[in-house]
Write a structure and sequence with these properties.
seven-stranded parallel β-sheet, 11 helices, alpha/beta, homodimer
Chain lengths: 259, 259
């Protein structure tokens, strides 16, 4: 079982939920499994109001953060996990079946990291753009005939796995999953996002990125930076380097940097 | 992962559900995890009608069995598992934390048994009487502050555990849990119930059971017979013996059986 301090470092993020009952159900599952930090990104206004005014809404729902910026919501997280059923597209991130996720999350929490667990809207799940902020995609092994889970139930199943399956018995030693990104002091998402913007600006300033390619570059950069498993120390050095490069490039546009 | 044939031998039983959305959610979780047999005992009539007429109700809900007899519903099961949160009473059955349940259920299915997974009504869960038909109680490890799960979410979490955690990885060999009743060819619930009635009638015929004690005896008998872990072979021999005893006793009431 996870400790209280570990549970406090798992954030649940709901992106654009449409049904107030599902927001309530997600909050209830969080209370059942001892989590406290809920963020809702771009909720439909009425949905959000109804969910929070429901009788018996748990405190964590009343304290939940509402945001219009998905990357800002995740800024403090060191491991961002998207959830999905993978029926209609091949994802660009590593996939971890949910039964193998608790070992990955526990390792991250044990070294002091902060985990974001992200759920997409009921109708179509997380977009390719949303997923570009995720290090991993967790997949619940459902049947091909009915792969898509109800949002509130998916949250409950994921939280059950993460909070109660970790080191559950002596037969199940916590082992890093080889394919999963396990490194000390992973960089926080906020710094990865600053890095994305900085590198992109650098590419532009260096005349390397044609305007038409900008969106695609940004997407690929996000993916790449998350697969590098940068430490926070790496991230700061890289930020420092690109800030310096950019400063030189932008002082001397179109020409060559002076020696 | 369980095979299709194993999944077909897990029955989900909802006792007196009150909210049609919860019945729908239970059915949807069953479809997600590949189960097909749903029984509903004593549903509120309107609840049941609304659940089945909901848009997108899965086939298994339309094919679900409605019953007024809990023991009849369970008659073919060889292992009956009640679910609950154990906050307000000390149960009379062995308790298995949900994360340890899949090994028990898998062993039962591997030897050809049939498993009933029983969920009580939303407001107060399974009664002491309902639980007397259960071999085990499975408990989801929730927080003390908010132990009680939503019914649809509890079903999803239990089915996730049972269908996807079984033999999930080489680190987690399937081992019989020592405290759990594991024996070949466990007797079906229907025969245990016939046995309960027969032994009770025998006690009465033998003048052993005062009328006032009858209810309590019946309850204790049910508990006892489930803890014995009788095989189907045992069950048939015991039934034969008691039928014979009863025939002799009832032919010769009040006196001594003739040689």
């Amino acid at each position: 079982l996870l400790t209280t301090s570990q549970r406090e470092r798992i954030e649940v993020v709901l992106v654009a939920p449409r049904n107030p009952l599902n927001i309530g159900a997600a909050a209830r599952a969080m209370a059942n499994f001892g989590l406290t930090t809920l963020s809702v990104v771009d909720p439909f206004e009425r949905t959000w109001r109804e969910a929070r005014s429901a009788v018996g809404a748990p405190d964590l729902l009343l304290n939940a953060t509402e945001s219009t910026s998905f990357p800002e919501t995740l800024a403090r997280c060191t491991l961002v996990i998207g959830t999905g059923s993978l029926t209609y597209r091949k994802p660009e991130q590593p996939i971890v079946p949910l039964p193998e996720l608790s070992a990955v999350v526990e390792a991250e929490l044990q070294r002091g990291g902060r985990v974001g667990l992200v759920f997409g809207p009921e109708n179509h799940g997380l977009s390719r753009d949303d997923l570009s902020y995720c290090h991993l995609i967790a997949v619940i092994p459902t049947c091909d005939q009915q792969p898509s889970m109800n949002l509130g139930q998916a949250v409950a199943v994921c939280l059950y796995e993460l909070t109660t399956r970790a080191s559950v018995s002596p037969h199940q030693p916590v082992q890093p999953i080889p394919s999963a990104p396990i490194l000390p002091n992973r960089a926080v998402s906020g710094n990865l996002e600053i890095m994305t913007g900085l590198i992109e600006r650098t590419m532009l300033a260096a005349g390397y990125s044609p305007k038409g390619m900008q969106e695609a570059n940004r997407h690929d950069l996000r993916l790449l930076l998350r697969q590098l498993n940068l430490t926070e120390h790496d991230a700061r050095r890289i930020l420092g380097l690109f800030r310096r490069i950019l400063w030189r490039l932008e002082r001397n546009p179109g020409g060559h940097p002076r020696a």
